[in-house]
Amino acid sequence: MSDIHNVIIIGSGPAGLTSAIYTARANLKPLVFAGLEFGGQLMTTTEVENFPGFPEGIVGPELMQHMIKQAKRFGAEIVHQNVSKVDFSGEVKRVWVGADEYKARSVILATGASPRKLGLPSEQEFWGKGVSSCATCDGAFYRDKVVSVIGGGDSAMEEATFLTRFASKVYVIHRRGEFRASKIMQDRVLNNPKIQVIWNTEVLEVKGQDVVGSLRLKNTETGEESDLAVDGMFLAIGHIPNTKFLGDAVELDDQGYIVVKDKTHTSVEGVFVGGDVNDHRYRQAITAAGMGCMAAIDLERWLEEKGVEVDTTADTYTNPVPA
Q1: What top-level class of enzyme does the UniProt entry assign (predicted)?
Q2: Which sequence positions are flagged as catalytic?
């Protein structure tokens, strides 16, 4: 495939699709590799109440479909395939989907991060039905209910403390006899009357009818099993950035997140980043979308500085896709 695109965007969550909207409106005709499972983490989210513009809330998959339609309206090409490898060593960036090679003057990496899971079949069954990895996103749904947080690091302490704003009781379930979180974060949890810590315990099964109703637990020291009635389970055992396919093409930190050198610029000139694949602090749809916008604007200005000719007279606008 000899055509050289102005920009290739890898990823189709809020960051990738916002980048697609902005670069398409700039007549850059972006090629977006959305992946076989497109839409990012919002595709497994039910009600989204904190994304601006939807006062009654919107389900995650519907929000992502809106973004895809909007990107397509302005001329973005969406390809539902996974990128298998890349080569950013030359002036022209090379991207492969299987045996097919694509070339571009610039690239935006927006592949996101996936929450670490326990690996239980029942965990997946109840995902979005009482099992979540984001207290900020879903905590308000558990007002006056009983919830659990799985983990022992700073993230788990932060999630548990946040959930006490809504829940009547919060269990922190940790497989060891001590937390690895910082002392100040531990103290907040241990001194909160709404929080009860269950030490040396792992979750064997998530149980319920249509939604989470209880957890089957096992004490790691005695082997004793028991059931704990809860309305929700929040995983706080970390995230895995989706960067394995990159190899050493760009600089990554020790956790595998893409390192930013200046705003949204990566360690490679002409390669930009947006969303959770760089952001391990906020991890929100709105912050990912904002970073996607920033990456698109930075990329557009970089192309201008490089003297890349962009056809601004081409009509990339089409009629909106019918709902």
Answers
A1: oxidoreductase
A2: 134, 137-138
